[in-house]
Amino acid sequence: MGEERRGTSGKRWTSVPRRTFLKAAAASAGAAALGGMPGILHAGQAPAYPKGTRLHLLQWLNFVPAGDKVFLAQAEEFAKQMGVEVQVERIGMNDVRTRATAAIEAKSGPDIILIPNNLPHLFADGLADVSDVAEPLGKEQGGYYNLPRANAFSGGRWIAVPQFVYSWGWNYRESWLREIGYEKFPDTWEGFRDMAKKLKAMGRAVGQAFGHSENDPNNYCYALLWCFGGAEVEKDGKTVVLDKKGTLEAIKYNTALWKEGLDESGLSWDDATNNRAFLAGSLSVTGNSPSIYFVARDKFPDIFKDLNHAPMPKGPAGRFYQLPTLSSAVMKYSKNQKLAREFIRWYMAKPQFEKWFDVMDTFAVPPTKMWYDHPVWVRDRKNVVFRDVIKDSLWPGYAGPPSRKASEAMAKYIIVDMFVKAIQGATPEEALKWGAGELKKIYGA
């Protein structure tokens, strides 16, 4: 029986239990090989794993419940074919970091953890080399995009296998924009500010989270920084350059936008608050994946008809995105590393991944380029915008290479808190000085 529950992100979930234990009896010696499992099942026989072998995977509570359903069915299918048990545990996104830290310190816990964003760099010493899985997948599927590779590759090895990248765009009410004279969504940040100011004056503010939550605050703040020409470090990955004109202009812009156009309760929001507020009719515009659209389609038909999506506005330096990623990491302490690799290789292979990608319905951008022309992207014209966001994405720590230090900076929410300090009354210059100082502590500059 399904149960309703709430993760720490605040989202409600139905139909899929919080923790699922998928068990299967050992496959007979004459079991037929499963399509899509090359290298796993040989001569129609499952590999011999000791009776009672259990593989434990820890992942996020999927924002698209249909994705959970497909993945769990695939885990059960894999378990039957391999003659093992597969335990899939799902928790709130904001709890994954804590669980991964505790598991690595204790050298005990899940065999596989789906780790968000660039956190694999922070945990690299506790992660097994999965190059033998990631490299072939990339070659088979047209190569990896820069962002997922940046977040899962370190020191000449793959420390995780990219699973997918969250799509992201501005969700907005078309009729409300028309009421203030906008027939289409503004393409620049200056136009965005004018739109937001007029909407807030009508009691329909733009919503943006600035709390310590993995996705929404980082997505907005890093992107805004880059759009105005700011960056954390030079290409050498050592020289902190946050204290520059581009960053200062981004802070000034955001502080004005906050007062003129944003919902001023956003300092306490997590990744789910804006979803609920938008669906309640309290917000006119908010940045998000298409998960709001999917819920509106099922439960709020009037909002669904009026909802559309737009790309990130352009700033003086261009259009950029910070997109959340999830990557499958095999833990170095695991005694089931071979089996863990086989499972990842299997669920990332085209036959399985395509089924999952199809039900994720533009929420998930595959990490490889093979999927760009897939029919999923054009099923609904309002979602086509999500296909191209990956092309304009950068990685935390840009313009330097991906690194543990960049991961630490993101984990400490330095960029987010820099913007928040100005919102709370510090001058833009003071906020910038604080942010640059915090980065220098990390980078040793």
Descriptive notes:
- It is built from 17 helices and 15 strands.
- A hairpin with a 5-residue loop joins β1 and β2 (12-13).
- Helix content is 40%, strand content 14%.
- It has helices at residues 65-82, 93-106, 119-122, 131-140, 146-152, 174-179, 189-201, 216-227, 245-261, 273-279, 291-299, 301-306, 337-348, 350-360, 404-411, 414-423, 428-443, and strands at 5-6, 12-13, 19-23, 54-60, 85-91, 112-116, 153-154, 157-158, 161-166, 169-173, 206-207, 285-288, 307-310, 325-330, 364-365.
- It starts with a strand and ends with a helix.
- It is globular and about 65 Å long.
- The model is unreliable at 1-36 (pLDDT under 50).
- It folds into two domains: 5-166 and 324-381, Periplasmic binding protein-like II (D-Maltodextrin-Binding Protein, domain 2, 3-Layer(aba) Sandwich); 169-322 and 412-443, D-Maltodextrin-Binding Protein, domain 2.
- The chain has 445 residues and is of the alpha+beta class.
* Whole-number tally of structural domains: 2
Helix segment tally: 17
How many strands, what sense, and barrel or not for the largest sheet?
7 strands, mixed
The percent of residues in helical segments reads 40-55%
Structural class: alpha+beta
The rounded Rg comes to 22 Å
How many strand elements? 15
- Mean pLDDT reading: 91
Q: So, CATH architecture of the largest domain?
A: 3-Layer(aba) Sandwich
Widest sheet: strand order? Answer: 3-5-4-6-14-9-15
User: Could you please say which CATH topology of the largest domain applies here?
Assistant: D-Maltodextrin-Binding Protein, domain 2
Low-confidence stretches: 1-36
CATH class of the largest domain: Alpha Beta
